[in-house]
Amino acid sequence: MKTERTLLLVDDEDNIRKALTRVLRRDGYTILQADSGKQGLAMLESNPETGVILSDQRMPGMTGIEFLSRARELRPDTVRMVLSGYTDLKTVTEAINQGEIYKFLTKPWEDELLRANLAEAFEHYELRFENERLARELQQINAELEQRVEQKTCEALVNMHALQISQEVLEHLPAAVLGIDEDGLLVMTNHQAEARLSHDGYSLVGQAADDVLPEALLEQIKYTLRGEVPAPIDIRLGSNTLHVHCGRMRQTSRAKGVIVVMMPKESR
């Protein structure tokens, strides 16, 4: 929906204001009129929705430059324009410096050119608010993103701490624990597993299960990977008999593979 556009005309000559109103009414503006700078300031005070001001320069009591300078202090977002029959350089310079005018137009005016300049002034005014709106939205989005990043960072720290605790627990278990992926590679071991299965001093992680594990255990792993639930078995490693359980990685882990837990027979 198009925003209503409010225009303030300030000129001490009644016929000028009426002529301007006739020209500009067709553009759908809400047109406010004031016959002096003092009345113009009062109109601005009571009509904060005013977007564009078009003021004469030579008026009794308060010049257009003085009025626009005070209008800038009162309503800094307004787009301020001068319409004057006097265009000496000093007047134009003062208008620009004191009133921060958008354009200095001359009398007599060309209707279509005046209408085009005012339409452009309103677009300039509305663009400021659109930019402010977008800036607020961007600020809100950034704040939400920062909050999400902070939340995700906290979750990551909690998960990392939980993982460290889990690893610590695994290292202190009296059982050997292995993780084997679907390709048959060892992807996780604890200290007990390394002590029982590694004989050359190298880590078991990254090695093929076929090169490390006994045949009976490899068969159990194959059954488990096919979705079967094999019964626990006992295997012999050196002088030790180990009770072995195999289970699929699932639920809390996105990985696919087999977890192997080997407990000394005498500890059962």
Question: Would you give an account of this structure?
Answer:
- With 268 residues, the chain is an alpha/beta fold.
- It is built from eight helices and ten strands.
- The relative contact order is 0.08.
- The chain is rod-shaped.
- The strands form two sheets. Strands 2-1-3-4-5 form a five-stranded parallel beta sheet, with helices on both faces. A five-stranded antiparallel beta sheet has the order 7-6-10-9-8.
- Keywords: Coiled coil, Phosphoprotein.
- It comes from hydrothermal vent metagenome.
- This is Diguanylate cyclase/phosphodiesterase (GGDEF & EAL domains) with PAS/PAC sensor(S).
What is the CATH topology classification name of the largest domain?
A: Rossmann fold
**Overall tally of domains:** 2
> Mean of the pLDDT scores?
87
Which CATH architecture of the largest domain is right?
A: 3-Layer(aba) Sandwich
- Based on CA atoms alone, the radius of gyration comes out at 41 Å
Structural class: alpha/beta
Number of strands: 10
Write the H/E string, N to C.
Answer: EHEHEHEHEHEEHHHEEE
Total of DSSP H or I helical runs spanning 4+ residues? 8
Helix content: 40-55%
CATH superfamily of the largest domain: Response regulator
Q: Note poorly predicted spans.
A: none
How would you write the strand order of the largest sheet? 2-1-3-4-5
**How far do the termini sit from each other?**
78 Å
The CATH C-level name of the largest domain is Alpha Beta
